[in-house]
Amino acid sequence: MVSFVRAPRVLEKPAEVQLTPSQRATVHMAASLLLDYPAEGTLETRLNAVEAELATLPAEVAVLLEEFIAQARRRGERAMAEHYVEVFDRRRRCCLYLTYYTVGDTRHRGAALLAFKQALAAAGYEMAADELPDYLPVVLELSARSGDEVAGTLLSSHREGIEVLRSALADAASPYAGLVEAVSMTLPQIDEATAERVRALVAAGPPTETVGVTNTLPFPTIPVRNPSLSGVTAVPGSAPVADPSPSQAARRA
Q1: Do the domain assignments include residue 12?
Q2: Which residue ranges are recorded for the region named Disordered (predicted)?
């Protein structure tokens, strides 16, 4: 007997919200912190750091972060860690690695990852942790730290994947859906051509012409953190959330 997995429904376009560069940086750093794996002893510190900045954000965005904080505290760190693995490790459409939505686990993956690495270098940053450069929290941290248009281009050019992730998380009734929706609100509005590509990707899922057959996602979802780095370098003209945990993403080259 063949089993079928229902594709998630396509969500409405995210609400249009006016954000200052400082507010956008705050949202991106908050999402970067909270979309990262909640390693033991880290979750409450991250929640407190984000909660302290909620008053600086528009209500439409702040409420999404506030709801995540409330759910995370209600579930507790261990349950959130288990949910993280269940959602991001075991669902093809819930991958936090952006190139997975464009090339999947195909022969093009290496070139796609190299393009991300080169984009970080073009912005004057290099990876400061043992993590892939297309990891969404990495790109969001780069955006918050630098305010560079390179980070915005990386996010916008992978908008279809972000929207598929948002739809799949909402379909799974995951508290992480609100975080991705908050990120979507910071990006340019979706045009009809992009919306059509999102619908197609939601229906079909990421590319499956694989190099090797596997039952798991082609990318790890629990990052290795670099304990020698901490904090956030302030972005001129902005005040992103102070990172209470070791930096996962990028440092000045």
Answers
A1: no
A2: 232-253
